[in-house]
Amino acid sequence: MHLSRWFLLLLLLFAFPARSGDYGFLIERAELIPIGESYVLNADVDYQFSEPAIDALEHGVPLTLKVRFKVMRHRDYWLDETILSETRRFLIRYHPLAKSFQIVHETSGIPQSFASFSAMLDALGEIRGWRTVPVGSLEKDKEYWASLSVSLDIEALPLPLRPVAYVSPSWYLSSPLFRWRIVD
Fold this sequence. Notes:
By secondary structure, the chain is an alpha+beta fold. It has helices spanning 2-15, 51-58, 117-124, 162-167, and strands at residues 24-35, 38-48, 63-73, 81-95, 100-105, 111-114, 126-134, 144-152, 178-182. A hairpin with a 2-residue loop joins β1 (24-35) and β2 (38-48). The radius of gyration is 20 Å and the shape is elongated.
C-alpha cells in the first residue's frame, strides 16, 4: 500500500507541471469578406504550444488541431439560427530523419513541409481564402455574427498519451471564442 501512494504522488507530479502561462492559442484577427460568389474567411492565429506538446511532437507524436467556424443569424425572440457550422482539422507532425515539420490538411491530405517549427507555425497561423457561405445567403436587413475558435484535439492523441493529457493543463490548448458581427 505504501508503494502505491508513492507511485500516485509521482504520477501527479508529472501530470501537473507548473503552469507558466506562456502557452495557448489566440485568434488575433478574423474577417469575412465577399469575393465572387462566396464569403471568404481570413484570420490570423498565434499558436503557443506548451513544452509537453512540443516534446511529444519532436518525438514523433502527431498533433491534430481543430478550427471551428460558425455563422449565425441573430433573432430577437428565438434562438439564433445557425447558417453554417464547419470544423476543419489540421495534422502537424515532425519527421526526424528529414528534420522537417509538416502540416496536413484533413480535406486535401496534401502535406506542406517546413524547415523549422516557427515557419510551420507562421503558415498554420495564416488562414486565408476559406470559402464559407454564398454571398446571396445573407439577407441585407438581418444581423449576422461569425465565430472562430481553435483547439488541440486530445482525442486524436495516441491512446497511451491521452490519460496524461486529460489531467494536465498544459495539454488543454485552445483559443477563446473570437466573435464578430458580419457587416456587408
